[in-house]
C-alpha cells in the first residue's frame, strides 16, 4: 500500500509499505478515506523529536473498517469511524482516571510516571516517533488501530469525511484548552496561534459563551482565516507587541483567558535560537511568556502547543505574582469526543471551513514542505488516499 513515510528530518515521501494486519484481538484494520497533516507532525519533520528508523506518519485520520479482531464486539466490517489520536486501552489506572493520553499499556517500552525528555513518556500516539510507541500512523491507504473497541467512534449518517475528520485531534484539542481554562459566558479569550488548533480553540470559545475572541499570529493568511472562519479580532504579532495590544484591547486589564496554541516552534530571531541551543532547549517558550504576561491577574492560561524539554526562563515568579492558573497537556480526546460529535452533526461547530488544500497522497512531500513554510496561504491540508 501507499503511505507517507518519515525517513529523516525534512524527508517525508509517499512510498510502498506492507499492508497492516491484525496483531492483537482488540485491533481493527481501517481503510483510510481521509487524513490530514497536523502542526504536531512538523515536530518530527523539523527534527524536534528524535526518530532514527522509518515510520508511517499521521495521527488525524478516519475511514472504513476492513477487518476486526475477535475481541472487538462493537465494530464490524463496513463501519465508518473516526479515530482519536491517543492510543488508549480504556482499562488501566490512567484511563480509568480520565487520562487516556497517559495510557499505561499503549507505550510499554517508554511509558513512565516522571515524564522525562527522552523516556518516561505518556501513552502511545499514532505516527509520532518510537518514544510514543512506534505506531505507524494513518497518512496511508490503511492502518492498524489498537484498542479499537475503546477508541473508534462511528460517524453519524449524512456527514461527510471533512465535516468530522477533525474530531480526531484539533477540535478536541481546542475544546480541551477552553475546558481546562473554564471559558464561559462573558470571557475575553486571547488565542496565540491561528493555525488549525488555534482556530478550533477560537470557535469553541464562542460556543462556550465568550464575549470577545482575539487571535494572535504573525502570518497574514492565518489572521485572515481567524477573522473569516472564527470571527475573531486579530493582532499581528509581527507588527505590534502582542502583549501590549491585548492589554490595550481589554481596558488595561488583560484577557480573562490566554491559550497557547503555538508551542515550542514560534517565529523567532537568530539570537533566540542561539540562546536556546546553548541551554539545550528545543525551541522556545516565547509564546508562553507572552500568554502569561497578557492574561489578567487571577486569569487562566491553557497550553495546547507542544513543549519537549525543560526551559531555564520559565516565568514562575510572574505566574505566582499574578495568581494565575496554568494548565497544559495533550488532549484527552476520548473524554470529549462523544459530546463533540452531536455539536458537529447539528452544525453548532463547523470544522471544514479551515481546509485550504486537498492533495493526493502521492504529493505528501510537497504538502509537508508547503505547510511547514506556510506557503500558498496554507492553513490545513487534507488527503483522501
Summarize this, please?
The chain is an alpha/beta fold. The chain has helices at residues 41-45, 93-96, 148-151, 161-164, 170-180, 196-207, 220-230, 242-249, 270-278, 286-294, 316-322, 333-345, 364-373; strands at residues 2-8, 11-16, 28-37, 55-56, 60-68, 80-82, 86-87, 124-125, 142-145, 153-154, 188-192, 212-217, 233-236, 255-260, 295-303, 325-328, 357-359, 381-383.
Write the layout of secondary structure elements.
Layout: E1 2-8, E2 11-16, E3 28-37, H1 41-45, E4 55-56, E5 60-68, E6 80-82, E7 86-87, H2 93-96, E8 124-125, E9 142-145, H3 148-151, E10 153-154, H4 161-164, H5 170-180, E11 188-192, H6 196-207, E12 212-217, H7 220-230, E13 233-236, H8 242-249, E14 255-260, H9 270-278, H10 286-294, E15 295-303, H11 316-322, E16 325-328, H12 333-345, E17 357-359, H13 364-373, E18 381-383
Parallel strand pairs: 11-12, 11-14, 12-13, 14-15, 15-16, 17-18
Antiparallel strand pairs: 1-2, 1-4, 3-5, 3-9, 3-18, 5-6, 6-10, 7-8
Helix pairs in contact: 5-6, 5-12, 6-7, 8-10
